[in-house]
Amino acid sequence: MADTQDPIPQHALERMKGLRSQNNRGGVFTSDFSVNEFLLVRKAGFEPVGLCVGSCIYHVGVQYGGWSKNQEMTVLSQAMYQAREHAMTRMREEARDMGADGVVGVRLEVKRLEWDQNILEFVAIGTGVVHAAGHTAFKGPGGAPFTSDLSGQDFWTLLHAGYRPLEMVMGSCVYHVAHRGLFKTMGSVGQNVELTNYSQALYDAREIAMERMQHEAIRVQAEGVVGMDLHEGSHNWQPHVIEFFAVGTAVTPIAAELAASTIPDPQLVLSVNS
User: Fold this and answer.
1) Domain annotation covers residue 233
2) Does this model's pTM top 0.85?
């Protein structure tokens, strides 16, 4: 993801000064972890630092699809991806400024604002964490903080299994689904029949979104993607226009020396009922 040049707001910088760090032992950490997530992240050898937030208010352009044509709406696809990218980049900048090694439990939210039907707010939020032993090898590509949408429980399980998160990867596709003609519609009244143009359109749009997410994982040299999810929504666009958004966490095996020193082997525990 390309960095943006927008500075972090002054209020965010002031907030980060009060966070706990090596140079500020009297500070506090902030997080959106549940109690179980907090304990398991600590168990995995990481400490929460602070809540990281990135926001982008984006004006989405206008594009019209042909009435009877299945096609990607490239203007909208690019807008939805770029806006999320800006929000993610700003969230990661906050993580970097607070000295975090990564961000766990990232949520990407899209909200339509009342000011204009073409204006959306994109928000990325998660908890910045730092490795308690100071191992920088847990960072993401290029030494930037890693990003992951895994919960605290899944983060602990992933590390316990010998893998670490690299980067939250995503792909977006906004697609226009062709309308059916009047005669085709009338011809299928009362019949069980597949609507092949709809099937093909949704199939194609999902594949494009997943392919783009997969390319991001390849770019960061990940072994695979875990926790993948496919979202779909229309965001109140014109009828027959839908977005498919694929997102997941790209992972790679933990280096042998780190796995041996920080992640214990699983143990089988047997209990006997009396």
Assistant:
1) yes
2) no
Please count the structural domains in the chain.
1
Contact partners, residue 60, CB within 8 Å, separation at least 6:
76, 79, 80, 83, 118, 119, 120
Backbone phi, psi, residue 149, to 5°: -95, 10
For the stretch 1-44, pLDDT in tens is 444 456 677 777 777 676 766 566 667 889 999 999 999 999 99
In the chain, what's the furthest Cα-to-Cα distance?
Answer: 74
Handedness of CA 87, 90, 94, 96 (dihedral sign): positive
pLDDT at position 268 is 54
Residues spanned by the domain of 224: 11-259
Question: Does residue 165 carry a pLDDT above 50?
Answer: yes
**pLDDT tens digit string along 77-96?**
999 999 999 999 999 999 99
Any domain includes 31: yes
State the DSSP string of 175-241: EEPPPPPHHHHHHTTTS----HHHHHHHHHHHHHHHHHHHHHHHHTT-SEEEEEEEEEE-TT-STTE
CATH code, 60: 3.30.110.70
Rounded CA separation 124/110 (Å)? 9
Q: How many CB atoms lie within 10 A of CB 17?
A: 10
Strand pairing class (146-147; 102-112): parallel
* Residue 43 is assigned to a structural domain of this protein: yes
Could you read off the pLDDT of 102-156 as tens digits, one per residue? 999 999 999 887 777 778 899 999 999 999 887 878 999 999 999 999 999 999 9
In a domain, 264, yes or no: no
Could you tell me which of 209, 117, 138, 201 has the C-alpha nearest to residue 172? Answer: 209
Q: From CA 48, how far away is CA 131, in angstroms rounded?
A: 9
